[in-house]
Task: structure prediction
Amino acid sequence: MEANEKYAVDPEFLNTTHGELGCVTCHGGNNELDISSAHDGLVKDPSADPEGLCNDCHGDIMETFKDSLHYTVSGQAHGLAKLGGLTELAASTELQGVFDKNCSSCHATCGQCHVSRPNAVQGGLFAGHMFAEKPPMEDTCYNCHGARNAGEFMGRVGLKSDAHFEMGMDCVSCHDVSNFHGTGDDPVEMFEMAALPQCTDCHSDVVEGKGDILQHKVHPEDALACQVCHAAPSNNCEGCHVSVNPETGKISSHSESFLSFKIGLNPDRNELRPWKYIVVRHVPTVEDMLEAVGPDLLKGYDTVPNWKMTPTHNIQRQTPQNASCDSCHGEVKWFLQEEDLRPGDSEASKNLVVPSSELPRR
Amino acid sequence: MIKRGLRGAPTSMKFLVPLMVVLGLVVALSVVGCSEEDTPVAVVDVEKMPSDNCVTCHLSADTILALAKPAEAGESEGG
Result:
């Protein structure tokens, strides 16, 4: 994105409620023509502070947003702590440093969804500084979640776009605003959120015992997550290693990706996700991932699976595995087996492997 | 009320008068304005700072491009 696209303001913006405030009111700096003194003291993202200017008018939203996963990125902090064998990330200076210098840069602010593209892609106004009540999926959601869920949903990653995307739906068609703005009582991890979308929110006619579809009737209640039958292969990652820039101390990471569709056992069946079989995705973690930061930092590595339940976002009505009974019950290749584990996968990964006694007999 | 007032009036008037009333309302609303954009928003309790010099540059894409540092033009995008 060129500088003129990133920073040019639409004249129409000046007539909006936000535009009438004046640039300096929110961004600081100085109302001068000299570029250097004009930008002296500039606040690039006035919404970075949840107690700041946005709070004056949007206090009800800021009250919950400051504790939301999008703002705190606590899901990543919690995951990193578990890998480190810790209950609190702050107990390790090195791991806290990794979070501060890398993971935390993924956090969102009001402006990074409603005005500009996120910092993760170097920002840039997406509509000449006009505020979007509903953030445009392609400029905002996709730029952070594009490698997996948003990219798959839009058909830019994997084999096919999601059937819902093809029908004109976007992220907020399913995701309640509380998924972004928080509820004020947010858990530390995404999958613990009660308000995540459920297929049955719309498709209540196909739940157990209802409807005319034979496949929905014959499978026992809570046996299968919907994705088991309706997801396409998704993007998986492996071999993540970080490197540290010796001059800036900035941490960056690199991993490889591969397409895969695997059905695994749900290691954490609960009220929100009760299914026995789920679709799993390989995450890139390896035991020596943080070797560049310090030795032996991931002491809890073997307690965390490398294969995770994934709410695959490439739903299809018809898939290779649901074409007929035999398409699934006669195909062991769909199921996660010991031989599918990557070299170096953690001990906990074995908890998702489908036992040979439950595999199709052929 | 309109119906009562038109009791005994010619048939053509019984159709014309209600139509005129509806049209009048539409015109009145469009003049007064009732679109979402015009809906009053929360009163902003902040001091508005003059920014006329800022917009001198930022309303012109050409000016921004001319003033941009080389590093800013064509920055690579992250993942």
